[in-house]
Amino acid sequence: MIPKIETASAAEIQTFQEQKLREALAYVREHSTFYQKRFAEAGIDASEIQTLEDLQKLPVTTKADLQQFNDDFLCVPPTKIIDYATTSGTLGDPVTFGMTDNDLERLAYNEAISFDCAGIKEGDVVQLMTTIDRRFMAGLAYFLGLRKMKVGVIRVGAGIPELQWDSILKYKPTYLITVPSFLLKLIEYAEAHGIDYNNSGIKGAICIGEALRNQDFSLSTLSRKITEKWNIKLFSTYASTEMSTAFTECEHANGGHHHPELIIVETLDENNNPVPEGEPGELTFTTLGIEAMPLVRFKTGDIVKLHHEPCACGRNTLRVGPVLGRKQQMIKYKGTTLYPPAMTDVLSGFSNIENHIIEIYTNDLGTDEIVIKLAVKKESEEFLHEIKDHFRAKLRVTPKIIFTSTAILNQLIFNPMSRKPIHFFDHRKH
Questions:
Q1: Which pLDDT does position 341 carry in this prediction?
Q2: Which candidate, 240, 245, 239, places its Cα nearest to that of 263?
Q3: For residue 89, is pLDDT > 60?
Q4: CB 3.0–4.6 Å: which of 9, 49, 80, 363 could bond 369 by disulfide?
């Protein structure tokens, strides 16, 4: 069920998006206290914004704005809010997103067309390995989308390989929704308990939170480790609470497909100007069709490349490539620009590593210092040299590496206040 607009020509998609943009701006001019003030302060008449190019005349919105003026973004009375979701903000406190009944319907539509993109169809059964509680939008979105598709859902939640396998063997799901590194734990458990995972009926996994591909769309080390053992298809999906929209890969695995009816995307440089086509920039979006908390030119902090060639699946929409890293997590180390995902990919190549954290400090010279702490099955000087050589080969530089215990790392990685494992700690003086 590819929406018609996604197979339209680039010119038709642009015309369609410009009409939707005018509608979205008319809506925030009338209902959003935040944007009424922001446009007035900037001396902008938003009714003069007619084209996608005109967007550049509008100021950007940041996470700090959301945090500072959270309630001013709400465009409907509180009585219209059906669901509350939260996301972490840059200043520490969570940001609340209210959603109306129509917003939840839009969320379901988004996930339905995204899962369809990845090949899930009516008659499939999907095991949901993410939380649906704690005001987490993603789990709810997955459930609503699958329900809309008339697809069976098994809500197991995160973790516990034994429980996941009990459920897989009993209910025979065809797809999993999971963090990809957890698939390695499922393989490990299956091998230890004599479960024939390649004959378990699982066809694919929709993966969240970790990179499946390199910038050229080849498999990341993590993906290779999974697929060398388990003959399943891995699909990457990129989304955020703020955008209420997902970019999911199709079978051709050339990046996450854009849904023009739901969102307008730009990639910007440090001065908020569009980057040249094919260059990495900060993904910035304007939501379409959201009632409760629409956003205009919201900067995600994620550095990505956009791909514009038509896809073999028949969609002509742009595609979002793998996230290079978070803008605020960019590290300048010995003259080389690094992001944590690149370091994680290097570490993924070693089966001796059980867990890791990456810490960044500012040294006495005022430059970035990297310390990687590893919990390994077997410590040795030879192994330490092997890791360092691998870093030099892949990234041209070698950070400081320290061995520690799994127990010490787990206390940091699995913070009870966080919904996701934390592997990156930034202690720099910003």
A1: 83
A2: 245
A3: no
A4: 363
